[in-house]
Amino acid sequence: MITGRFFAAGADRRILIAILLLLAAAVIVPILNLAVPPTSGLHLPSYIVALTGKYLCYALLALALDLVWGYCGILSLGHGAFFALGGYAMGMYLMRQIGDRGVYGNPLLPDFMVFLNWKELPWFWYGFDQFWFAALMVMLVPGLLAFVFGWFAFRSRVTGVYLSIITQAMTYALLLAFFRNDMGFGGNNGLTDFKDILGFNVQASSTRSALFAATALALALAVFVTWRIVGSKYGKLLMAVRDAESRTRFLGWRAENVKLFAFTVSAVMAGIAGALYVPQVGIINPGEFDPANSIEVVIWTAIGGRGTIVGPIIGAILVNTGKSWFTGALPELWLFALGGLFVAVTLFLPKGIVGMWDQWRSYTKVRHAASAEASPPPAEPPAIVRVSSDKVSGWKDEPGLPEPQPAE
Amino acid sequence: MSRGNTILYLDGVSVSFDGFRAINDLSLVLDRGEMRAIIGPNGAGKTTMMDIVTGKTRPDSGEVFFDGDIDLTRHDEAEIAMMGIGRKFQKPTVFESHSVEDNLLLSLKGPRSIFPALFHRRSAEENCRIDDILGITRLGDRRGDLAANLSHGQKQWLEIGMLLAQDPKLLLVDEPVAGMTDAETEETARLLKDIAREHSVIVVEHDMHFVRELGVKVTCLHEGSVLSEGTLDFVSADERVVEVYLGR
Question: How far apart are CA B181 and CA B188, in angstroms?
Answer without folding.
Answer: 10
